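stuck on this one:
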Amino acid sequence: MLTSIALILLLGLLLGSIFSKMRLPSLLGMMIAGIVLSPHALNLIDQSILNISADLRQIALVIILTRAGLSLNMEDLKKAGRPAVLMCFVPACIEIIGTVVLAPMLLGVTVLEAAIIGSVIAAVSPAVIVPRMIQLIEESYGKEHGIPQLILAGASVDDVFVIVVFTAFLSLASTGALSAVSFLQIPVSILMGICIGAAAGGILTVFFKKIHMRDSVKILIILSVSFLLLELQNRLEGIIPVSGLLAIMSLGIVIKQTYSVLAQRLSGKYNKLWVAAEVFLFVLVGATVDLKYVADAGVFAVLLVLGALVFRMFGVALSLVKTKLTKQERLFCMIAYTPKATVQAAIGAIPFSMGLACGQTVLTVAVLSILITAPFGAICIDKMYRKLLKK
């Protein structure tokens, strides 16, 4: 295991650094490192790490979402208003509809199978988007209309929405019944996540104000509470739906609102944690990619991913109708909402493991969506935010 950790860190940092010097996103180098080390290539990652790969990726997500909460100003988010709510579900819905239209023609699947494919690829990647939006907040780009905050909030809820829709479609495919209760879980999950996270953040703020301790210890306490919030989500599954990741982000937001001096200090600490977490996250995402599926995919699967992206960008444009955003700012939002990675790596193989007829196709399209959209979105955000947004 120790050898595998060393290889993940060294090769991930090396290729990430090389890609940065080439003025490309470092995550692209890290994903390539994962593909090289994966069981589908050189097979240099210990099975014990692959067994806990999902948990390690989730730890990295916890770190970056807490950091997002500690950086997010609610006043800026309030400025976004209606578009922030629409961005949570409209682009994903339009992308799923686009996939339902395109997939039967391109891949010869049924409408339900197309809906499952659409619900897998429709989730945007917080792991790619959140660090970049935090950078924009720190550099004061897009501040006038709260664009980074708009995208941050939308991307965090978008995943909750898409995963619930994916679960509903899977249930329909396996049992033949679609429960309306499944869709009721979406607003309940979001509200419960926000309320529980806000309560935890409030309690921690009072605790930190009354009891003096080092910031490093506070980080450990916040991380532990965050992991417990994720466990609460798992324990309450089937009883009350709760979004653990939204709860974690809400926790950070409350600390930012009620104890901003501490939030600023903790944000710096989380920046340092993210250095290692980012490597593990993207190397392990890369390790889930089997290039054999990509080779078998053919041009039609690529066309489906690209076509779905066009529908998604139209959905973003629709969400921003009647706002004060300029054309350049709208274009930036459309581009920034394209990267896919973490959710696809987490759920792409589920239909295949369930033995569904479309399982292989779903997995192939999920892999392709990561390889196409993560680099595309990351490169476009990095290269274009200075040109499209006001400082």
